[in-house]
Amino acid sequence: MDIEKIFGLAAHRAPGIQDAERLYAVLIALNRDERTGEYSVLYEVRSDTIDAQPGEVCFPGGHIEPGEGALGCALRETQEELGIPPELIEVCCELDTFHPSCNIVIRPFLARLLPGAAGAITPSPDEVKDFFFVPLSELSEPYYSRTYPAVRVLPKDFPYEMIGIDERYGWRSITEELVVYRYKERVIWGFTALMTRALMRFLSSLSGEGGAT
Description:
Elements: H1 3-10, E1 22-32, E2 39-46, E3 57-58, E4 61-63, H2 70-82, E5 89-94, E6 104-113, E7 128-135, E8 144-149, H3 160-163, E9 175-183, E10 186-189, H4 190-207
Parallel strand pairs: 1-6
Antiparallel strand pairs: 1-2, 1-4, 2-3, 2-7, 5-6, 8-9, 9-10
């Protein structure tokens, strides 16, 4: 193994994320009501005919293609899924990377729709069944939020003796979160709900309020 060669090749390597098998980017887009001035969050409902999570609520976004930047992916997917061109979107910032325990990484971007964008929404029927907006005031607290212990199941051939421990070893606990939002007949849960809660905490931390307008 040529360590000198490896050091030369890796000197300018950009770090990745350990065990991340799938990389995604999403756009969390806010839209301002021209009448009330209140901001709402844009969600879409996945088509019933797609393979992954059909009929569920999500943010526009998708898989980051090789050689594609995360923001470029989020904007591209938003245009493909909802017909909103990038020139009608004002990007604010990238929010904290979301890395759940199932080997996927989601990079969310906060943006707002410029005038005319909401009226230009034309869902792609192959990918999107519907779309809707939820006022920020309705997202201040989730409808349901619980943390529960994840079950650790080790294989029977785990080398306890070689390591010097037994079945009673005090493993660090692993927890998962379940968060659900409800707005009228809409239900938001899973990763989308977790990112929604993170969004609200981010907005509140900067505004100094429980919500944002």
